[in-house]
């Protein structure tokens, strides 16, 4: 049990360290860093490397933004196998729609209850 938590912490922390290095060393903006990490997750899933990482690190690999890229490619590939080219587009939205919808809904609820300072 301890090993599971340890490796989730190490792998998730390593992904965050990569993002921080992108900020500090390469002086990338948050948008560039976010996009790059999503693309890295997508590429890793395209080569079949992200699922073994999830099996090994658990939440350490599913919580960071790289998992969003993994979800996009994973959904597209699954649906493409079933429905062809149309499945590529629908698969991306089918797998990620609940997370995106939750972010929009909770962001809206937060905006109702809290006022920005400025």
From TrEMBL:
Protein's UniProt keywords contain Oxidoreductase: no
Transmembrane listed as a keyword: yes
InterPro entries found in the cross-reference section: Spore_V_AE, SpoVA
Alphabetic keyword roster: Membrane, Transmembrane, Transmembrane helix
TM ranges: 6-26, 38-65, 85-114
Lineage top rank: taxon: Bacteria
Pfam families assigned: SpoVAC_SpoVAEB (PF03862)
PANTHER family: STAGE V SPORULATION PROTEIN AC-RELATED, STAGE V SPORULATION PROTEIN AEB
NCBIfam families tied to this protein: spore_V_AE
Protein name according to UniProt: Stage V sporulation protein AE
Name of the gene: spoVAE
């Amino acid at each position: 049990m301890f090993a599971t938590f340890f490796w989730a912490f190490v792998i998730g922390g390593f992904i965050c360290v990569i993002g921080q290095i992108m900020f500090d060393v390469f002086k990338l903006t948050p948008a560039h860093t976010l996009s790059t990490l999503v693309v890295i997750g997508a590429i890793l899933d395209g080569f079949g490397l992200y699922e073994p990482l999830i099996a090994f690190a658990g939440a350490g690999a599913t919580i960071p933004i790289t998992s969003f890229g993994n979800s996009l490619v994973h959904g597209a590939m699954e649906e493409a196998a079933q429905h062809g080219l149309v499945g590529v587009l629908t698969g991306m939205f089918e797998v990620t729609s609940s997370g995106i919808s939750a972010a929009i809904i909770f962001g809206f609820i937060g905006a109702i209850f809290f006022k920005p300072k400025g």
